[in-house]
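Lab manual, section 2.4: Encoding a predicted structure.

Procedure: take the sequence of the chain (173 residues), apply the prediction step described in section 2.3, and record the output as structure tokens. A sample record is shown.
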Amino acid sequence: MLGVGLMVGGAYAQRLAQGRLAGEALAFGTTILMAVMMLTVRRHRDTPMLPAAAVSALLAALLAWPLAAPGRVDAREMGELALFGTTQFGLGLLLLTLGTRLVSATCAALIGTLEVPLAALWVWLAFAETPRWSTIAGDTVVIAAVLWHIRRSEAAVSGRQPASALRVPGGAE
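Recorded output:
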């Protein structure tokens, strides 16, 4: 939470003041619905979820259609949108749906958490868009928290304590 708070920081109040509450509410709703989807997939592991994921993608497109302006998109932009829809959105949803069954709910949520900091990295690498310092700080906190959790989980599974929990022989308590 601290990392995400750093990322949005003061810009959040400014966005709300500019009348962007609807967008913020939609982003929050998307987060809640993704969590519900992950929990549903985990709960019903034996039920094929790919058809449901495909229908959800189709419904999302139908809901967005009235808000879209397809006439304003040139051929190059339409190609980029098609590429985005099939790879980033389509392939990502496919892999998330298949993978959520195979890992713990906590691990799936942590992997999903990495989407935010990694998105800033990909935009920086692909488009040379320099993120704000608060975004870099927040990304660092989120990635560090995920890596810390993975390290702790691996240590618990292997039955050994992580190095940070080990006592130094002869050391002070």
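Check your result against the sample. Residues 75-100 form the longest helix (26 residues).
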